[in-house]
Every structure is written in structure tokens, then in C-alpha cells.
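Write out the 3D structure for:
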Amino acid sequence: MQVVLSVDMAPGQKAFIFPYTLASQYRQFHWQWYWKNARSFRFLVYSFVISLPLIMKINKGAHSPGNVEEWKKRREARNHTHFDPPHE
């Protein structure tokens, strides 16, 4: 069984024996075969798609202006050198 790539090569071009660049490795990867025969590959894609909204929500909350200001204050409170006198 031969896997057909979705991106066809131009006429007269031949694929490298070993794909040296990341783009050629990505292009020559057997996506269809892995999707059909490797359950872990499908689960990896499904889990990424399912967890993406949760990751986006956490990222949005972490980079909200209120949270940025809060952490700026916390970092300023800890901004000292080891030669500063102790304080409470």
C-alpha cells in the first residue's frame, strides 16, 4: 500500500533519499498511515483539540491586566539584593 501525499511534487522533481530539512521531513511523513494504524497518534490529536479551549482560558486569565499588575506588585516586593538590611 502506497500512501499518497496531499501535496504533489512538480513534474521532474524527485524526493530526497533522506529529508534533511524539517519542511521535507514534514512533507514526507506518512500522515495517513499513522492516522489509520497508530491509535496513540489519533488520541494525541484528539486530546490536543479537546484541551485547547482549557489552555486558552488559562492563558487568557494569566495574562489579564489585573493579574499582570498583581504579579508586578509581588515582584517589586521581592526585589532586593543580599546586601540590603533585613526588614519585615
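The two ends are 73 Å apart (CA to CA).
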